[in-house]
Amino acid sequence: MNGLLIGRFQPFHVGHLAAVNFALSQVEKLWIGIGSSNKSNERRNPFTAEERKEMILSSLDAKAKARIEIYFVPDIGDHERWTYHVDSIVPNYDVVFSNDDFTISLYQRRGIRVVPVPLLNRDVVSGTNIREMIAADRDWSGLVPEGTRSVLVRINATKRLSEIL
Fold first, then answer.
1. Percent helix / strand / coil, the chain, rounded to 5
2. Digit-coded pLDDT (tens) for 11-37
3. According to DSSP H, which parts of 47-92 are helical?
4. Do 35 and 77 contact (CB within 8 A), yes or no?
């Protein structure tokens, strides 16, 4: 059975890692869609799709990497067509993993099974909060996997985010 997990991963954090591991406990193969892949260097989407892909891959162990494939999913500005757009990019899947109410409703309308992902401490472990902490040069390192941390340091995320936010 194949599953689909879509997120912006801005940045890929410990909650995302837990979601990937949860999904992998349910399926043989997992397609990870990097949403808003056509956006970067802006407030909600500061990191490029390639940077986010690197964050994900550098945060997973070899066994997990062998069971995932990553796809770039650009925004198209049409909510009703969006799930079909995703389908034109990723291989067939049997289940979608999500906690986003809008995503859930779009897939459920099509009769596609959606499994909610257990959330970690959402108030703290959120991309918005982590981006703000990075920009303010506060300690965010415990909120992201080591692989993500390395990428963020290498690309000087503190400077980028302090200029964007």
1. 45, 15, 40
2. 999 999 999 999 999 999 999 999 999
3. 49-59, 62-65, 79-87
4. no
